[in-house]
Amino acid sequence: MSVAHLERWRLILGEAAEGACGGLGETASAMDAAIEWLYGRDPDLAERGLRNKQGARGGSVLSSPQWINEIHRLFPKETIERLERDAIERFAIDDIVTSPDVLSRVTPNETLLRAVLRTKHLMNPQVLDMARKLVQDVVRQLMEKLARDVAIAFSGAVDRRRHTPLKAGANLDFKRVLRDNLRHYDPKTRRITVERLHFFARNQRTLQPWQIILLVDQSGSMVGSVIHSAVTAACLMGLPGVKTHLVAFDTAIVDMTRDAQDPVELLMKVQLGGGTDIQGALAYAQELIEQPARAIVVLISDFYEGASEAMMIRRVKSLTEQRTLVLGLAALDEAADPAYDRLAAEKLVAAGAEVGAMTPGELASWLASKIK
């Protein structure tokens, strides 16, 4: 995240300097809201006449987990550490990292999961125990949805001559459903009451052995992709004829394949943050490959290379020249709202990779289309 020079001064000096420094752009306004959410509760501000009379510019509606996610999106590592320390030690905003009661009452969701993963290093053992249960609940929800997508993607072509009791929206025999339920048509409401659904069967797909290597950037901005990569890897692990590897990286490389069948344990071990050495991760992937022409390397990253970008491109070119498929994913969560180095992505494509932003379900379909 970058802000203009005058915006930096406005953030430092506060709202009183807005006349001299001008207004704030979108990113700087979000920073200002996050700062005000925390430091706006300082009682000394009112006594010194420095209280922001307009409130926290929308920041007051943030929950603690949302605030944690915002500061990790907006600020560098050193600033995040200072903000978290002040939140806990100075203002006693400790509901997410020190209170088992709060964790036991909250509704498990992905926003909260991201906050837990970002602050688990601050938790005492009792709270960490509660946090693990929350992670289990959210991961179970994600697994239930993605497992269906993966099963459909890898289940073979639709066979319109046969039907099955297995229910999947993609296999719905719409014509037969309409024909069998026309007698339930109500002219007054102009609606049909559907009493029975019919689904096409799918032909069994016979898979030749394939190798899928997921390389996951675990820098702080990629937390959503880390979560969904862990769930995706767990779903792929159960497929016949597919050997899946899961490798997390920043400036170091951690092969997490052994933990991939248990995404909860995997996520609790992930260390978010740090630099990025994409070319090193690609080199490691190349060492894992058994049959180059039957291997797919999936690079899940924002493509901001902290090591050598030229070497990163050479690694991709080397992989594609040996007929290994390389897919670059700029996002891997339900929103698939990417923020990435577009120039680097263009260079990856020129080297033979395919680059896009996909949800986990879309990734499963893409992989299935490549595996024959």
Task: Walk me through what this model shows.
Residues 209-368 form the VWFA domain. It comes from Methylocystis heyeri. This is VWA domain-containing protein. This protein has helices at 5-13, 18-21, 26-39, 43-47, 64-74, 77-90, 100-105, 110-119, 125-153, 174-181, 223-237, 263-269, 278-288, 309-321, 342-350, 360-370, and strands spanning 158-164, 185-186, 191-192, 199-202, 210-217, 242-249, 253-255, 295-300, 325-329, 354-356. With 372 residues, the chain is of the alpha/beta class. Among the domains are: 158-202, no CATH class; 210-370, von Willebrand factor, type A domain (Rossmann fold, 3-Layer(aba) Sandwich). Helix 3 (26-39) crosses helix 5 and helix 13 packs parallel to helix 14.
Using only C-alpha atoms, the radius of gyration works out to 25 Å
Average pLDDT across residues? 78
Which superfamily, in CATH terms, is the homologous superfamily of the domain at 210-370?
Answer: von Willebrand factor, type A domain
Query: How many E-type strands?
Result: 10
Pfam family, one: VWA_CoxE
InterPro entries: LolB, Uncharacterised_CoxE, VWF_A, vWFA_dom_sf
Protein name: VWA domain-containing protein
Organism: Methylocystis heyeri
